[in-house]
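Private note to self, pasted from the team thread so I don't lose it. Backbone tokens:
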């Protein structure tokens, strides 16, 4: 059984990921992922990356957006044997300048499925899988 203090620390790790993306503070991702973590964005049309490569890829992809807000909810933390997992809903708002200079927006709704390890520096994600459940709005064409 996971202690409430550990659950709060895990949720803080998940929120730190959202904050890093929304503020562009990419160095914060070093406090989210283990360097050898497996980060799977194929559910949103992206690649599978290592934790060490995730920041650079996100900086490149998210740099096109003028507005980013990632919201987590329905966070469930479970202990399965000696493995700790977290399941959470994500609602991500993306704003960008359209061809005419006007702001355009799209939202992504989905789920994060995470495996976490407790390290001497705190909880870190060892595996993340993003599943997209829905998209709404003006998704930019690549």
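Design output:
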């Amino acid at each position: 059984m996971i202690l409430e203090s550990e659950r709060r620390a895990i949720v803080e790790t998940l929120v730190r990921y959202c904050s890093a993306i929304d503020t562009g503070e990419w160095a914060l991702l070093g406090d989210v992922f283990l360097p050898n973590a497996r980060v799977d964005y194929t559910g949103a049309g992206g690649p599978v990356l290592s934790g060490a490569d995730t920041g650079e890829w996100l900086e490149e992809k998210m740099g096109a957006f003028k507005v980013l807000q990632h919201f987590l909810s329905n966070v469930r933390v479970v202990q399965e044997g000696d493995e700790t997992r977290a399941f959470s809903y994500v609602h991500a708002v993306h704003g960008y300048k359209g061809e005419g200079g006007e702001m355009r927006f799209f939202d992504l709704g989905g789920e994060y499925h995470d495996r976490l390890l407790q390290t001497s520096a705190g909880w870190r994600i060892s595996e993340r899988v993003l599943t997209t459940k829905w998209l709404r709005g003006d998704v930019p064409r690549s």
